[in-house]
Amino acid sequence: MNYRITLLPGDGIGPEIVAGAVKVLEKIGARFGHTFEFTTCLIGGCAIDATGEPLPRETVETCLASDSVLLGAVGGPKWDTLPAAQRPEKGLLGIRAAMGLYTNLRPARLYPALRGACPLRADIVEKGFDLMMVRELTGGIYFGERGRREGKYGPEAYDTEAYSVMEIERIARAAFEAARKRRKDVVSIDKANVLETSRLWRETVHRVAADYPDVTVSDMLVDNAAMQLVRNPSRFDVVVTSNMFGDILSDEASQISGSIGLLPSASLGETRRGLYEPIHGSAPDIAGQNKANPLATILSAAMMLRYAFDLEAEADAIEAAVDQALLDGCRTADIAGGATEGILSCTQMTQEVLKRL
Ligand code: NAD
Question: Which residues contact 184 (CB under 8 A, 6 or more apart)?
Fold first, then answer.
């Protein structure tokens, strides 16, 4: 098969880590008989420098015409003083909107080789965990009506949460589909004891669940979920939740994995195309020094193979190569636990993964 992939390296370490992921995709292509056609476009600060805007039209058109999109990161101190509407982050929000991406998938797992970096208690670490957070991305309180007004106690501010049945149905389907590629268990998180949107959320998730009899589903209140994530994270497979709850819980989940530099993500919409990116930023402090950890971007490319192209064996092969490199002791500076000897550069770490593919 031939797949067209748009690359958006962006700023800071973006070009270095995306280059690593491209090498891995090329090797996978050669091994499994696929060709990947790459087109590189501008986004973020580098796009502002070259064209005056963070998301040039050509970038949007190329992304929409491709089979999938791999992004590095955007932003950096150089553009921090620009007005909000012209900042690099606008490019990221803009491309998510243009591609209609309403589902955010963030896996969080504990790498056996990096157990020492996990902040949880030893007996919990011993059990390990491997979960997928599915967050609704374009609805809820972040997009509801808001404002300031005169209230009962004087000036007040308000934000409103609204969810339509359609929005809940489609995120629930995304979660059940993701569960079918994993251990077939979904926990839906809400605050149904208080919020009407959560009661509609719960009803709708259970209605959708009827179409997925092979997947088990249960509900959990968000306060309990925040607690269970640190007490018993191995209990979770797929977690589905609203925009704000997901924002908070996915950060909690990434923290307990102890190695934010290893975490990939996917943003998906109605088409399978999707946008795949590491969860970390552009790391301006180490940009251009060949020190960045490329693994989160390489794992994002693996997610792309699995979710955009249904190439399960190919995605597994990349993940296994990364696992093996870590088990064999390969470390970039960010995951070396303070060690100074034997630290790998970005290109060396990429080579170690390639060797194990
Ligand atoms: P950051 O994630 O870029 O960096 C935080 C720390 O982690 C830094 O010390 C950095 O060196 C380190 N780090 C991050 N990724 C690493 C990697 N792959 N390998 C090794 N070390 C790594 O977060 P920040 O410093 O808060 O933000 C820097 C810039 O990135 C800002 O302009 C911010 O707006 C932007 N940002 C972009 C995205 C995105 O593009 N999705 C996300 C977050 C932040």
Answer: 214, 215, 216, 237
